[in-house]
Write a structure and sequence with these properties.
Blueprint lengths: L1 H14 L4 H35 L7 H27 E9 L34 E13 L4 E4 L1 H4 L4 E5 L5 E10 L4 E6 L25 E6 L7 E12 L10 E4 L11 E3 L5 E8 L10 E5 H14 L5 E2 L2 E5 L2 H7 L8 E6 L4 H4 L7 E5 L2 E2 L3 H9 L6 E8 L2 E8 L1 E2 L6 H15 L2 E5 L16 E6 L4 H4 L7 E5 L2 E2 L3 H10 L3 E7 L2 E7 L2
Length: 519
């Protein structure tokens, strides 16, 4: 015990002999080292824990590893498909010229114009070239990158004076229109610059639809809302979706892939990387994707593209009639059997094949070359597959009598000519007055209106329109306009253009009365 006490006391006395500054410094160093060690240990623990999630780890579950392989292969395949598709897709922007100076040109006296009758000095009143103003956009894709051919929708470039393409390699090139098919909503463009940069570009092959089935995976590529190179995935919801009133010919592929404004003209791809369709329309109430979109099938597109490149246009057989689907109400009005299915002739183009063989308004065409025509889309699609000059066998019903007649088809006219002229005549009434009319059918058997020798049959009344407010109804027959007998749609069109106020003489259910219109 004494020894221990002595040692301790002596040790303590020795410590007291060190200078106070050194002791304080040693204590601080020891504290710092201890604190650093603690932080290092904590950091190492987190790094090690994080590395378990970041660094590649061997899957300890061999069954799970095998199950993930198909998904990994599927993901890699989609990535390769996307890479290939994006090389062929182009962003289409269209412009038109407007009056005035070119965009970007500055009049130095702009700020003073119209102030105290100030006029721009003569030296600045030069004739600037017409400016170009962007007004639309869409998508397209190369069908032949060597020749510079691009396909897109007609409605994407309609009324455009300047067409600009941004390619996948970020180069921008102007293109010119090679040809159009208004009825199928397709055009072929060609890059003007023959020596444009083709690096990292490719074209797409149009695939046959014979082996395409509902439920198959598809990919959409394009520039929705101007977002270039966008992709979306979905399935084929339906094949051969017809009677949609989107185009005048052809059925459509329906998909649930996300398609938005700006996707028009872009490709619909199968899992082989080939185009099976050209995106053209969406069904939406919001303006964006609702999971229902439609694409022109590649089989129709291939024929159209080939003819446009070869001839600058598409050649189709033309009969010269405007038709509508025969529904139950029309069957009853025309006193036709419920078994009859077809399209009702509502207008005939003058000097057309139908006019020459004396097809009548009110005839019901039930088949074309032995193929039934249950609706307008089927009827026009069947005719569009036939060449000008080819003979077509029509089967139609007139006053319950079945007639078979062969007629040679003429050339389907361009958009400005007779067939669309007939449609536009009808559309004018709908836009301004809210009603559609056709010449009075001749076969109103069982209906008192058959005794009326002339007049126009009211086919449709739009809700809330001036025609509805004035009391006009569907099924009415307008016999006169301001005491002038009506015998043609053209005649009514001219009279409506001349008069702001008028009186219509109407025949309805055996009674005759007058309906005034004062604007």
């Amino acid at each position: 015990m004494p020894c221990v006490q002595i040692v301790a006391r002596d040790y303590g006395s020795k410590l007291k002999t060190f200078p106070p500054g050194i002791v304080s410094f040693v204590v601080k160093v020891l504290k710092y080292l201890m604190f650093s060690c603690i932080l290092t240990l904590i950091g190492a623990t987190y790094v090690f824990a994080g590395a378990r999630f970041i660094l590649p780890q061997e899957n300890k579950n061999p069954v799970q590893k095998e199950l993930l392989k198909p998904l990994q292969i599927y993901s890699q395949a989609l990535a390769e498909l996307a890479k290939s598709a994006k090389r062929a897709v182009v962003f289409v922007s269209v412009s038109k010229r407007i009056d005035g100076r070119p965009l970007g040109a500055i009049d130095p006296y702009e700020l003073f114009r119209n102030r105290n009758n100030f006029q721009t000095p003569p030296e600045f009143q030069e004739n600037f070239p017409e400016p170009v103003k962007p007004f639309g956009m869409g998508s397209g894709f190369f069908i032949d990158v060597d020749a510079g051919y691009v396909v897109t929708n007609y409605h994407v470039i309609k009324n455009a004076e300047v067409i600009s393409l941004r390619l996948a390699n970020d180069s921008v090139e102007d293109a010119r229109l090679i040809g159009k098919d208004v009825h199928a909503d397709l055009v072929v463009l060609k890059i003007i610059n023959k020596n444009f940069d083709r690096s990292n570009l490719d074209h797409l092959i149009l695939d046959d639809l014979k082996n395409t089935h509902e439920g198959e995976l598809v990919m959409v590529a394009g520039s929705p809302f101007g977002l270039e190179g966008s992709l979306s995935l979905g399935i084929i919801s339906a094949i051969g979706r017809g009677n949609l009133q989107i185009t005048r010919v052809g059925d459509f592929l329906q998909t649930d892939a996300a398609v938005n404004p700006g996707n028009s003209g872009g490709p619909l791809l199968n899992m082989y990387g080939r185009a099976i369709g050209i995106n053209t329309a969406i069904f939406t109430r919001s303006g964006g994707s609702s999971g229902i979109s439609f694409a022109i099938p590649s089989t129709l597109a291939a024929k159209v593209i080939e003819e446009i490149i070869r001839d600058g246009r598409v050649h189709r057989g033309f009969l010269g009639v405007n038709v509508q689907k025969l529904d139950q109400e029309l069957r009853e009005l025309l006193n036709l059997s419920p078994k009859i299915s077809g399209v009702l002739v509502q207008d005939i183009a003058r000097d057309s094949p139908a006019y020459k063989i004396k097809i009548n308004i009110g005839d019901v065409i039930v088949s074309v070359n032995g193929k039934s025509t249950p609706d307008e889309n089927t009827f026009f699609s069947l005719l569009s597959q036939l060449s000008p000059g080819s003979q077509v066998l029509l089967k139609f019903v007139r006053r319950k009598k079945v007639i078979n007649m062969s007629v040679p088809l003429s050339e389907w006219p361009e958009e400005e000519s007779m067939i669309l002229a007939m449609e536009n005549k009808l559309d004018q009434f709908a836009k301004k007055f809210g009603f559609l009319v056709v010449p009075k059918p001749k076969n109103l058997r069982g209906n008192p209106a058959r005794k009326i020798p002339y007049g126009l049959f009211v086919k449709q009344i739009l809700n809330g329109s001036p025609a509805e407010r004035m009391g006009l109804k569907e099924g009415d027959i307008i016999t006169s306009f301001n005491d002038e007998s009506l015998r043609s749609v053209d005649q009514l069109q001219i009279l409506l253009g001349k008069h702001q106020r008028f009186v219509l003489k109407i025949y309805r259910s055996g009674s005759i009365f007058f309906l005034p219109y004062s604007g």
